[in-house]
Backbone:
């Protein structure tokens, strides 16, 4: 019997977790798994994750409280069934990772040490210092390397999904890949394709996401007619280190505020007092908007994060990466306030999936940040992303085990020689224009005029990209810009379609209209 061919696009936590689980569930002669990625795992959002994995492991905590916190932050846009499933299965994932060799911080009694982050009613973030993503990637990569069923191939720039059939019989049968080293465009066939391509932070001018976070999986799905959802909801992290010219921006983990640090305005006033009952640990959309408004109102370059109440010993022990990054910019975080700004951090929406990672296209799964499973809704509860990237890949692998069957050869086919242009469009200029417009008009604060202006710019840039694409003179920069334009169009269009403000979406025109309606209601009572 022919082995099942599976292509996983992306080598972050979600992609590797799915591949590893598949290799465990299938016998070595039953499955052939190829992981394709344009960047190594060290360049993924997963690797950069500082905070940790949100799981209810304390006796004083419960999965019900975790569920409720997730639903509150998601502002009515979560799928309650998916939320319950994910938070209930989180502790089991942590136990399995520890059995595989993962090392998490523990207290003096050997119990898991947990931190508190924004939106959580209890301390429940399991971590490894401020390098939890590094530890997860290490353990999963070791598991992938030990498997005889998984091949990691790259760098591979995946261009599009391959789809066969029509109507209800459409199915994904592989991916088209640009291999610049070989100078070829290849069609790589598979029985199952798993998108685990990460986020789209690079559509904004200031982001904590690595340069490869161009939303490629979402863009490929959209071009293939696969439904997406919740694309209006882009989470901005309130505290990225202010260091002009650094791309990506350096994240200052929320756990620093969980340990007691406070946000201050440029002139030193406590920033979150009176804004929200949870003050500095309010949901991220609340804190990010407050920081953004303070910067605009004061005409300041940044606000401050005051961590001076934390001892140097504690800061260095709990946040070694943050400490090193701050020192590299000339800031001692235990003696001086840290300059911070908001930065695009996480896309709550993505390719629409069910609890098993299945999309609207047969044979196609989507996992991690490129997917919209229904867990996050309008805003992601802090550290739920790594949790999702561990739980749902397990479900996807089990579903593939019982539903997929070999139907296509895994043989690659050469489509054409790749022609890389020597001159042409100024991709850097077009990309910069797009990122700037998205930041100012489709970022933390939005309005109808800004959305309309950006929509026109997106279509202008899209026209340039389409004309270059038809010439089949491709480069990595053109591929990335094509994906960024597709995702930007989706975010902007979804923001225009939202009729009320919730979570990370805040349209000032809608806020004014809502305030006017409230005033009118009060007057007529």
Residues:
């Amino acid at each position: 019997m022919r082995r099942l061919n599976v292509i996983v696009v992306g080598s972050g936590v979600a992609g590797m977790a799915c591949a590893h689980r598949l290799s465990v569930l299938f016998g070595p002669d039953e499955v052939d798994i190829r992981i394709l990625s344009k960047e190594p795992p060290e360049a993924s959002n997963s690797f950069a994750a500082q905070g940790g994995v949100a799981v209810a492991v304390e006796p004083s905590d419960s999965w019900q409280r975790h569920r409720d916190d997730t639903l509150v932050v998601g502002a009515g846009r979560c799928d309650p069934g998916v939320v319950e499933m994910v938070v209930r299965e989180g502790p089991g994932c942590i136990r399995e990772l520890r059995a595989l060799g993962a090392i998490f911080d523990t207290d003096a009694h050997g119990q898991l040490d947990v931190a508190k982050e924004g939106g959580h009613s209890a301390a429940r973030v399991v971590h490894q210092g401020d390098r939890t993503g590094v530890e997860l990637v290490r353990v999963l990569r070791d598991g992938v390397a030990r498997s005889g069923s998984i091949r990691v191939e790259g760098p591979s720039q995946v261009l599009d999904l391959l789809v066969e059939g029509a109507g209800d019989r459409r199915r994904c049968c592989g991916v088209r890949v640009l291999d610049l080293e070989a100078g070829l465009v290849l069609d790589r066939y598979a029985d199952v394709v798993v998108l685990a391509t990460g986020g789209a932070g690079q559509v904004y001018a200031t982001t904590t996401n690595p340069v490869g976070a161009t939303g490629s999986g979402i863009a490929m799905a959209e071009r293939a007619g696969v439904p997406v959802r919740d694309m209006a909801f882009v989470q901005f992290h309130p505290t990225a280190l202010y260091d002009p010219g650094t791309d990506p921006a350096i994240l200052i983990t929320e756990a620093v505020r969980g340990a007691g640090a406070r946000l201050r305005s440029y002139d030193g006033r406590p920033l979150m007092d009176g804004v929200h009952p949870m003050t500095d640990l309010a949901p991220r959309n609340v804190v990010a908007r407050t920081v953004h408004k303070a910067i605009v109102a004061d005409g300041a370059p940044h606000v401050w994060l005051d961590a001076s109440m934390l001892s140097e010993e504690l800061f260095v022990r709990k946040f070694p990466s943050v400490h090193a990054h701050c020192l590299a910019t000339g800031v001692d975080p235990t003696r001086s306030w840290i300059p911070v700004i908001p930065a695009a951090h996480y896309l709550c929406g993505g390719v629409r999936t069910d609890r098993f990672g299945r999309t609207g296209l047969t044979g196609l799964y989507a996992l991690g940040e490129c997917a919209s499973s229904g867990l996050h809704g309008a805003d992601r509860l802090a550290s739920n992303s790594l949790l999702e990237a561990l739980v749902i890949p397990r479900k996807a692998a089990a579903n593939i085990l019982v539903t997929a069957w070999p139907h296509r050869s895994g043989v690659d086919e050469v489509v054409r020689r790749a022609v890389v242009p020597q001159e042409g469009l100024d991709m850097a200029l077009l990309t910069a224009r797009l990122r700037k417009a998205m930041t100012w008009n489709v970022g933390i604060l939005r309005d109808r005029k800004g959305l309309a202006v950006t929509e026109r710019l997106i279509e202008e840039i899209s026209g340039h990209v389409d004309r270059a694409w038809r010439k089949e003179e491709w480069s990595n920069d053109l591929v990335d810009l094509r994906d960024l334009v597709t995702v930007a169009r989706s975010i902007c269009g979804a923001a225009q379609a939202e009729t009320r403000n919730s979570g990370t979406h805040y349209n000032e025109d809608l806020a004014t209209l809502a305030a006017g309606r409230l005033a009118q209601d009060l007057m007529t009572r």
Remarks:
- The chain has 15 helices and 19 strands.
